[in-house]
Amino acid sequence: xxxxxxxxxxxxxxxxxxxxxxxxxxxxxxxxxxxxxxxxxxxxxxxxxxxxxxxxxxxxxxxxxxxxxxxxxxxxxxxxxxxxxxxxxxxxxxxxxxxxxxxxxxxxxxxxxxxxxxxxxxxxxxxxxxxxxxxxxxxxxxxxxxxxxxxxxxxxxxxxxxxxxxxxxxxxxxxxxxxxxxxxxxxxxxxxxxxxxxxxxxxxxxxxxxxxxxxxxxxxxxxxxxxxxxxxxxxxxxxxxxxxxxxxxxxxxxxxxxxxxxxxxxxxxxxxxxxxxxxxxxxxxxxxxxxxxxxxxxxxxxxxxxxxxxxxxxxxxxxxxxxxxxxxxxxxxxxxxxxxxxxxxxxxxxxxxxxxxxxxxxxxxxxxxxxxxxxxxxxxxxxxxxxxxxxxxxxxxxxxxxxxxxxxxxxxxxxxxxxxxxxxxxxxxxxxxxxxxxxxxxxxxxxxxxxxxxxxxxxxxxxxxx
Length: 466
Ligand code: ADP
Known about the structure:
The chain is an alpha+beta fold.
């Protein structure tokens, strides 16, 4: 069963259900029909016998009988019995016969008289008797009018009559039902094939994309909104995300190698220059300092890249907990105020008891990056101000400086990986600090933006939802 195609499975299920329903329908029709027929036969039996009750009359002498009538007369109990010519001795397979008290047949027909002889009379009751597998209904009626006392009418009918109709219906059903079932199976199979065609196209397209490795290709199954079109759209969305992820990966590798190439080239050039010929001590010192600077830069770059990749690729490895932001801001600012670079002073204002759900290490890193930049791009004897406050449903963290500022055209780009604005001539940055900050804010479901003016300073705002 497992190896069968969905198309065949659907058809098989469909067939089983169809045959079951057909069988049930047949059984219901058969049983209802049988009951109806039995009732009709019994009603017919009773009606015929009852009709015949009035057709038997008693006359003391034949002279009192109506001479116009061409009826049947027989001597009975000192007078005569007149059997009207309307007496239905056989109609619709119902036989009616007249018996005396001793169960002797006086008039009419009874095809099973041999078998019913021993069956006592039961007034206005239906009795059953089965002869050679055929069921017979027997209905007796006691005649009560004057002179008729002791006489019985007995009606007999076999179930066969109705059963022949049933057999005809059954034969018809037996002939046509398999025909309908076969037609339905063929129809079901064709329908399943037609409906499952898009699935085949989806799997072929997916296999084509998989084997060619071309993530730019998409599954085309035309317009529509049904489940299969949704499935195809889901696949296409997945291919789009895969393509984006591969593109981001490729871009990152290319950016990283580009960024690393410069320090490596500088280091190699400095070494070659120093080894070419004997240099003065100052020149060696100069070369070693350059190599040290570039080495540090590479080390920072590699660390930043590793952190960045971890956050981008394995964000789930950072646990989330309730983080006391008030305490975090106080401790980061306290530590970083010690830097006192370029005579810059760092002050802060943190609202009491502000907590958010997040990762302490990343939030530390976020504030550290913003404050580091504020120092790096701050002016001599300038200031840095860090603020933490509640703003409606949000928590707002901001870092302001009165440093060199960022040009308007570059304010959006600075959050991109490895991007460094024109103002960045320090040579110590990696261009990853703000993109890391951006990823951290994203991780916490917040937003980051900058307000800045060239030559006047910048403020970075981060909004967290509580
Ligand atoms: P970098 O390692 O170069 O500092 P970042 O991603 O941290 O990289 O920042 C990107 C660029 O944004 C920096 O190169 C700098 O040009 C600009 N920048 C960031 N912070 C500030 C700031 N406080 N003032 C002025 N410019 C800034």
